Every structure is written in C-alpha cells, then in structure tokens.
Amino acid sequence: MSEKFDVIVVGAGPAGSSAAYKLAQSGAEVLLVERGPYPGAKNLSGGVLFGRVLVDLIPEFWNEAPIERYINRNILTLMTEDATLNIDFRNEAFSTPPYNGFSVLRGKFDAWLAEKAEEAGAALITGIKVDAPLIENGAIKGILAGEDELLADVVIAGDGALSTLAQQAGLRDQPQPSAMAVGVKELIGLNRSIIEERFGLTGNEGTAYGMIGYPTRGVPGGAFFYTNLDSISVGLVMHIDHCSEHKVSPADALEEFLAHPFIAPLIRGGQVLEYGAHMVPEGGINGVPKLYTDGMLVVGDAAGLGSNNGFAVRGMDYAIASGIYAADTIITAKEKGDFTAATLSQYEQMLENSFVLQDMKTYAGAGPLMKTQRIYNEYPQMAADVLDQVYTQQSLPKENLLKILMQARKDSKVSFLNLGKDGWKAVKSL
Ligand SMILES: Cc1cc2nc3c(=O)[nH]c(=O)nc-3n(C[C@H](O)[C@H](O)[C@H](O)COP(=O)(O)OP(=O)(O)OC[C@H]3O[C@@H](n4cnc5c(N)ncnc54)[C@H](O)[C@@H]3O)c2cc1C
User: Fold this and answer.
1) Mean pLDDT over residues 151-169, rounded?
2) One domain, residues 386 and 422
3) Tens digit of pLDDT for each residue in 59-95?
4) Lower Cβ count inside 10 Å, N or C end of the chain?
5) How far apart are CA 330 and CA 340, in angstroms?
C-alpha cells in the first residue's frame, strides 16, 4: 500500500492524539497510528493529569473526559522503614473548575482523547507498529510499517520515551541509562466507599501522595500513590543506572513498599487489577534532543519532555502542549506549502516560549538534587528522629528543640557544610 496523508502521527498517547485532534480540526488529512490494540493499552502512568493546557484544546474537558477524581489534596511524605512525616496541603480552590489536577487511568483516558481526534476527522489505526520513518535525500517523507509504505508531508514522532523513530531520523541518540528512570506500577481495585472513607473523600475529591526515602531503597526517584474512583494507582519511579549500582530490583522494592506499615493499611482488602513497567525520560532540559528536521517533529516523551521535582511528576501535560504546538506549526507550514526544517523550527520556538521548556529550565537543578543520596536515607531519618524526640513523652526531662535538632544532625553524620549545600540546592532548584 502506498498512500499519501498531510500528516502521519505515530503513537496515540496524549502527545500524538492532541496533535492529531488539532490538525484534524484544521481540515488536515491525518493518520494516527498506534501499535497497541487500542490507545492507552500500552500506556502506564501514575496518573495525575495537570489539565490546564488541555482546556486550550477541549474547553471544560472534565465534563466529558473519563477522569477519575479531581485532586484537591497533595501530600509529600518523607518515609523511613518505620516512620512517616507528611506535608499535607489541601486547597479548596483545587475543587472547582478549571481544577488543578485529575487522577486518570490511561487505558480509558488515552482511548477517549484518540476518539476525539477521530471525531474531528483523523483516521486511527491500531495494532500497527511503525518500523521506521521513510527517508529520502535526508528528508522524512512518510513511514514504513511491515509491507506498507505510507507517505506524508510531515510525520510526528509521538512514540514515547525510547522513540526509535526520532533515533532513526538522526534527531536523538539511544537513551543513556543515566537519563532514564523506570516506573513500576500496580493498579489496586478497592470499593469506592472504602476509598472515600479511608481517605476522607467526599464525592469525586481525590488525594495524591508523593513519597521520598525508604520506598526506593536509596535509589534516586520516589513513590506515588493516587486515589481513583474505585482503585488506587501506586508505584515507584527509579533511576535505572542507580538500580544496578545499588543492586535494587524495582519490582522487589515495590513489593516491600506495599508492605510498609503506612501503606499496607491503605490498600488492605484491595485486588491487583494491573501491573506494569514503563520508561520515564529523566534527562531534564539537557535530555531534550533536536526537535525537528525536514518533514518531522518530535513530541512528548519522545522529545524527552518531562519533569520530576519530588512534588510532582509531569509529562502528560507537557505531551499535550507539545502536540498542540506541533499541530500549530504544521498548520502554518501547510499554509506556506513548506515542510522543511526552516519552517518546522517554529515548533521549537513555541516550546521555548511556553511553560514546557521554561519549567524544564527552572527545574534544571532538580535532577542533580534528586540524585543526592542523603535525601533518601539521612534526611528522612533525621526528620523522624527529631519528631520521635518531640512526641515521645517519658518520665525524663525533655531537651529543647535546638538540642534535639543538633543531636539528630550529629547522629545522621551529615556535616553542616553538606546540610547547608543541600538546603541551598533545594531552594534554588525547586
Ligand atoms: C510510572 C509512571 C508514572 C507517571 N506519572 C505521571 C503523572 O502522574 N503525571 C504526568 O503528567 N505524567 C506522568 N508520567 C509520565 C507520562 O506518563 C508521560 O510523560 C506521557 O505518557 C507522555 O505521553 P506521550 O504521548 O509522549 O507518550 P506515551 O504516553 O508513551 O505514548 C506513546 C504511544 O506511542 C505508541 N507507540 C510507540 N512506538 C510505536 C510504534 N513504533 N508504532 C506505533 N505506535 C507506537 C505507544 O504504544 C503509546 O501509545 C508517568 C510515567 C510513568 C512511567
């Protein structure tokens, strides 16, 4: 088969489907190709979508999208083997439109977004793996999938964190382990009323935990725990290079985390509905490759767009934003009838001017900070030791807080210099 489209989008994740939707709305002939049996089948995500950018594409999307709960309570937990310290932030402003974040299940959410693209006029084919871009004289002219050769003015590579398409087009190298994390996740089914009672939720309110310390066993990364309507998304994100260095298996670490005395009661009685593992780009702003060439744009995870500053894992909203900017760029290119890198470079400019690359620059220091070993062992333990002293009441005279702090610092063996340096790094990079 040899057919010509205006645009072929590879990958029906949030990035690809957003681009396909906007392009189809503009009247472009769009083919959206997904290797999974349906969009979202192969996608895994902790699942808090920061949805403000989606409003630009689908106003009041929460009225029709399969969202689970709106998140109005965020909890940052420092965890040791037997203690937890929570910073618990609940905000009523997050409970009203346009909301701040939503828990979503990707099997449902991605399928819905791809369906929106179809309704707008894009053709969706599933169960087809794109093997390579079709390259002629250094320009991308379409895709190769099995026996088929499909032509297009522009190909959008939205094929996720490992993006073989962007690699084959010469836009990026094979990802290095130092720039990648692995996410392991379980979806645990639990009765809706139990979830609401256990987490103090009313209606569609939801809670999102980000956890640091014990869960990743000294490996840079963290744990997430999100409430859905009648399930919990729980998992770990761990830097790959450090997993081998520390000889920690993410699957084992997840099992131990789920058995933690703080976590086990929260999931008691639940049934594991899904288990999966997926790559997460963690290269930060330095991991963003070249984003365009003649006839091709790279979006979402394929373009290394993501940030993790300990408070929030973001990737879906960056993916949607990049899909929108890619579509806008192609609409301009179509008007000019020029699909060369010179015109497509507008995409990079749009990303540069947007929250996506600006946030990634703001959090440029978060990556190195997250690799500071003391965050995972010494600091959670120090915090637990201080609070242990504060709350433990014995028939002995108590020390004042300054003495308790000094003693905890001394026991932790963290020097004043390192404490000061880490504090400064944290304030500067978060
Ligand atoms: C454990 C975990 C937790 C996360 N938590 C959050 C979170 O809470 N909030 C957040 O915003 N982000 C989170 N992320 C990140 C988020 O999931 C990604 O940033 C987001 O999915 C990127 O979207 P995308 O469309 O670029 O890529 P993807 O969602 O990966 O979609 C790529 C699509 O391309 C398809 N594909 C790949 N290769 C081919 C091919 N050759 N041919 C055809 N189709 C192909 C895939 O099947 C897939 O459907 C998390 C990620 C993980 C792994």
Assistant:
1) 98
2) yes
3) 999 999 999 999 999 999 999 999 999 999 999 999 9
4) N
5) 11
Find the domain containing 317 and state its range. Answer: 2-66+101-177+286-363
Count up the domains in the chain and report the number. 3
Write the pLDDT tens digit of every residue in 190-226.
999 999 999 999 999 999 999 999 999 989 999 999 9
Residue 49, sorted as left (phi over 0), alpha (psi -120 to 50) or beta, turns out to be beta
What's the CATH number where 345 sits?
Answer: 3.50.50.60
Ligand 1 atom with the smallest distance to the CA of 278 is 53
Mutate to test the pocket of ligand 1, among 129, 224, 280, 363 (most ligand atoms within 8 A of CB): 280
Do 191 and 316 fall into the same domain? no
Residues 6+ positions from 355 with CB-CB distance below 8 Å: 53, 321
If asked whether residues 28 and 140 sit together in one domain, one would say yes
The mean pLDDT of 245-254, rounded to a whole number, is 94
Residue 268 and residue 238 in one domain: yes
195 found inside a domain: yes
Distance 12 CA to ligand 1 centre (A): 9
CA 191 and chain centroid, separation: 26
Question: Residue 224 is encoded by which pair of tokens?
Answer: 């997430």
Rama region for 166: left / alpha / beta (φ>0; ψ in -120 to 50; rest): alpha
> Is there a single domain that holds both residue 133 and residue 43?
yes
Kindly report the protein residue whose alpha carbon is nearest to atom 39 of ligand 1.
159
Whose alpha carbon is nearest atom 12 of ligand 1?
315
Distance CA 168, CA 143 (A): 11
CA angle centred on 51, ends 71 and 181, rounded to 5° = 85
Same domain for 301 and 233? no
Between β-strands 2-10 and 102-104, what pairing exists: parallel, antiparallel or unpaired?
unpaired
Please check whether residues 298 and 168 belong to one and the same domain.
Answer: yes
pTM: 0.95
Q: Which residues does a 6 A CB cutoff place in the pocket of ligand 1?
A: 10-16, 33-36, 42-49, 129-130, 158-160, 183, 185, 235, 237, 278, 280, 300-302, 306, 313-317, 319
Taking all residues of the chain, what is their mean pLDDT, rounded to a whole number?
94
CA distance 309 to 210: 10
Listing DSSP states for 322-354 in one string gives HHHHHHHHHHHHHHHT--SHHHHTHHHHHHHHS
Question: Which tokens go with 373?
Answer: 């070993």
